[in-house]
Task: structure prediction
Amino acid sequence: MRGVYGVEQVRTAEDALMARLPEDALMARAATGLAVECAALLGRVYGARVALLVGAGNNGGDALYAGAALARRGAAVRALLLDAERAHAGGLAAFRAAGGRVVAIEPAALDGVALVVDGIVGIGGRGSLRGAAVELAAAARDTLTVAVDIPSGVDADTGAADGDAVWADVTVTFGALKAGLLVGDGARRTGELRFVDIGLDATLPEADVHVLEAEDVARLLPTPGPADDKYTRGVTGLVAGSAAYPGAGVLSTGAAVCGGAGMVRYAGTAADAIRARYPEVVVHEDARPSELWVQAWVIGPGIGTDDSARALLADVLATDVPVIVDADAITVLGQSPDPLAGRSVPTVLTPHDREFARIAEGPSADRIGSARAAARDLGATVLLKGDATVVAAPDGRAWINRTGTPWLGTAGSGDVLSGLIGSLLASGLEAPLAAAVGAYVHGVAGQLAAAVGPPSSADVLHSLRAALHHIAAG
Result:
């Protein structure tokens, strides 16, 4: 798992490391890594035209030192100093000594360049771009742009970009992943994220926000052993679908089947549709969910929000097994004054933004903070869907998912996700990890489905087994 850090954590770690190193050694490491990445993007460095957008302080210093390295390899590098009085003195001297030129601050200075390096504002910056930086960022939109550590104008803690900010094609970040690169507007403006190790691992604290990687998911995915049977592998219960929306039941139930559950029980009101598609599912038409033995329940997709749905949700929440609450069930839950009172076993809530607003405040531009606050207040794991899904546990731990595709924004996609998480939860995986692993696998399935054309949710469902195989095979 890769740790994700806030600005203060990174600054503290940098200060501790710099105390052990010669002066400017840390900046030299960052600038060298930045220059290497820029050179790789240029392909042919000699004769390439490069423009540096240089702000005050260390972020601009990184850009200037990297520009100096490119100039020494024959690139024609020009620097636009947005605050000449506060430009990094050492970086500027090295840049000039290498043959770099300081030019006037005007958008026309970017004409004809092959690469723009955004060193305007670093991770300590707050608020949108101002003054000449706004015009320069706009002028750079049609040119390959590399951001230094984070796109200028993006909040490194939250990913918020309230006004003008740089759109990077590539962001080269140093020492630690910053949350603002992975969520919200920041994730969209970061482009391809490249990481330069500058030796911070020894001074960084233990992270409480993580990104799952393929090897983590492969390790966490349940794999049956010789002594396992359908019961020990996990029995998942589904209350999903209705006469009006049978497809929701089919999608979520199918995901539980494909996700590895040893057995699936269905207790919704779309029984005929489930029988027709999945003969291996045990259908209980007349039983109350609380009368059935399962190891996790999934409730919500397509059940409606009427009195019958409310009764079903109350019955499921009264059980002593983990429950995934999704879709219509979240709407019903939001109508209760104390929706999860008395539950001592894990609950996972899987809202998109509009559903989130029915059970908690927000979400705000700080999506990690919003999900954490909701998880704490509700005493439940919260999976906040989005282009970068956030999973938050009641104890403050959080995970950011980086798999997926915009094609997953289609009707029924969330039904597949909830059924998949249900199968993982029934297998015994801890609730927050079941949600995080489910989001990862669902994202990979979406990517595989989209590789052959615009996918439907049924296509995503049918790609689940391939996604599981792909992850397990490494």
In short: The chain has a mean pLDDT of 96.
